[in-house]
Amino acid sequence: MTEPLTSRGAGDDERPPPRFALDGYTWREIAHLLANLPMALVGFIYVVMVLSTGAGLTATVIGLPLLAAGLMGARQLGKAERARARALLGVRVEEPSPLPLRRGGGVMQRLWMALKDPVGWRTMLYDFIRLPWGIATFTVTLVSLFLLWPVLPFIARGLTNVDRAMVRGLLSPSDELERRIAELESDRGVVVDTAAADLRRIERDLHDGAQARLVNLAMGLGLAKEKLLEDPDAAAAMVAEAHGEVKLALQELRDLARGIHPAVLTDRGLDAALSAVATRCTVLVKVTVDLETRPAAAIEGIAYFTVSELLQNISKHSGARTASVEVWRADQRLMMQVRDDGRGGARLDGGSGMAGLAERLGAVDGLFVVDSPLGGPTVVTAELPWRDRGDETRQR
Prior knowledge:
The protein is an alpha+beta fold. The protein has helices at residues 24-56, 63-89, 107-115, 118-147, 152-171, 176-227, 232-260, 263-268, 270-279, 297-318, 354-363, 389-395; strands spanning 284-290, 322-330, 333-340, 367-371, 378-385. Helix 9 (270-279) runs parallel beside helix 10.
């Protein structure tokens, strides 16, 4: 009677010790060894075709895309091999994470991430070295079935142990450091794109707003100078108009500066800055900030603009009557929660800027969660890594 299979956790084998009698587990090992040859042939031919075609055409525009597509296909071969090892050998290997392709990434970004995919390259190596091993295991197993029947379970166990080691070594998920590097590289692209978009917005606001007013102001003062002796009254009217333009330009510059980094945030911190934002919201907002110390300026700025954009969304889209903002520290995380009693239905893909906020927070190792059933209420919880203001000063 065979021993029952016992679960030993992810990555462990689930197999009884080998016996002279061939039990169900041994037959599965034999089936795996006999299937090694056709699977190794498929994998080897695929790798040779991908490398020869992709590398041979690298001088053309289709070479690198073909190689990237080949690496993506290798991931599927690896998935099939992990499934075979799981079913026949009891090897529990988790599936690797998908490529960290950020939303809205361009063709070149996707191509580059696919070309340097460690999972795809390790699978290609696995398939390339498996052909001689597949021939050897197929031959030994076939001969043992007819000539070495009494010791076949021990031969099968020894050969499949090598297979298990190969699967764990080459088809297991990327280690945590490797995965984290890939995520950070993708997040870096989000940060760069966000910074570029902010610069374009500032340039557009300056060009269409304060800059245009200052140009009109210069022209008006020039005309007033010409009329100063001929028509003092008209000149005085032009100067008065120019004075009004100066006030409007100054107000626009103040608004622009507030959009970059408001002075109240720098001088008085999140409590005062968020209270000021709340007064501009179209609904009644209660602000509660429970922080004994201030976080680093960069973290404080991200928190401010996150809450600001959420309150703008409440004003524009929620139909709420009241809202609340809570900010507090939990261990080494800065926590924020914004809720309203509006109609609900907010989603990350709803076009209200939620997805952009989630990407921005994710780029700095933060989290962004939206709970908004139809009919409300809507609760948005965000968190950021806490860094003390003193740590930032020392880094400078």
